[in-house]
Amino acid sequence: MKKIYLLAVTLFAAFTVQAQEVVKFAPLDNSPVDISYFPNKAVKFKKTDSPNPVIKVTYARPSAKGRTIFGDVVKFGEIWRVGANENTEIKFYKDVTIGGKKVPAGYYSLFAIPEKDKWTIIINKELDLWGGYAYDESKDVVRVSVPVKPVSEVIEALSIAFTTQGNVANLVIGWDKTTVELPITIK
C-alpha cells in the first residue's frame, strides 16, 4: 500500500510541475528607464532634515550609437516623447510655474518639438502612452520655446538632470551634441 501511495504522490507532483506555466521574462531593454529628481539626490539621501522631492522625471534613455540624433533619428518639427518607449513622465509634488503659467501639482507627460536652433517643450495631461503616436495637443498644459545649446562632446545616452538658480529649477535635457534647459519656478 505504501508503494502505491508513494507512486501516486510522485505522479501527482510530476504532473503539477509540468502543469505550471513557465514565465518568460523579457530581456534587458536597449533604452533603460531612469529617474531624475529635483533637488538632486532628494530621494537617495533622504533624511528628516533633507529636502523632499519637488520634481521627478521618469524616462527611457536611448543611446546615440554613432547616429546623428536631431534632424535624423529625431526629426525636426515633429513631436517627440523625450526618450524612448513609453512617453516621459514628470511629476510636480507642488504647484510650479513654467513659461509664466501655473502648473498644478500632479503627473504629466513631457514632449518636445525639436528644431535646429530651438525646441518647444510641452507639458501634457495625457499619461501612459507609447511614444508620441497618440499625442493630443488639446491636452497640453503649457508650451515653452527654449534655445538649443550645442555641446562639443557627444552625450551618448539621453540624459535629464537639474540645475538650480535661486527658486528656479532648470530641467536640462542632453543628448548627442545638444542640450536645452526648461526653467521651472518653484513656489
Structural description of this entry:
By secondary structure, the chain is mainly β. The protein has 1 helix and 10 strands; from the N terminus they run H-E-E-E-E-E-E-E-E-E-E. The chain has a 6-stranded antiparallel β-sheet with strand order 1-2-3-6-7-8, with no helix packed on it. The termini are far apart. The mean pLDDT is 88. It holds the Pfam family DUF2911. Keywords: Signal.
Can you give keywords for this protein?
single chain, 187 residues, mainly beta, 6-stranded antiparallel sheet, 4-stranded antiparallel sheet, 1 helix, 44% strand, globular
Map the helices and strands.
Blueprint: H1 2-19, E1 33-38, E2 55-60, E3 88-92, E4 96-98, E5 101-103, E6 106-114, E7 118-124, E8 140-147, E9 149-165, E10 168-186
Antiparallel strand pairs: 1-2, 2-3, 3-6, 4-5, 4-10, 6-7, 7-8, 9-10
Concise summary:
This protein is about 10% helix and about 45% strand. It has about 190 residues and is mostly beta strands.
End-to-end distance? 79 Å
Number of helices: 1
Mean pLDDT: 88
Residues in helix, %? under 10%
Give the beta-strand count. 10
Cross-sheet strand order for the largest sheet: 1-2-3-6-7-8
Structural class: mainly beta
Proportion of β residues? 35-45%
Give the low-pLDDT segments.
none
Shape: globular
The profile of the biggest β sheet is: 6 strands, antiparallel
**Helix and strand string, N-terminal first?**
HEEEEEEEEEE
The Cα radius of gyration reads: 23 Å
